[in-house]
Amino acid sequence: MYKEARLPQNAKEGILFMLIISFISVNTIAPIIMGMKFGFSLVQYVETLKVIPFMWIIVMILVRFVAGPVVGKIMPKFVGQTDGFNARVLLTIVLNVTVLSILLTIIGTWVGTREISLDPFANFFKSWFRNFGIAFWIELLIAQPIARWVMTKMHAK
Question: Which keywords label this protein (predicted)?
Answer without folding.
Answer: Membrane, Transmembrane, Transmembrane helix
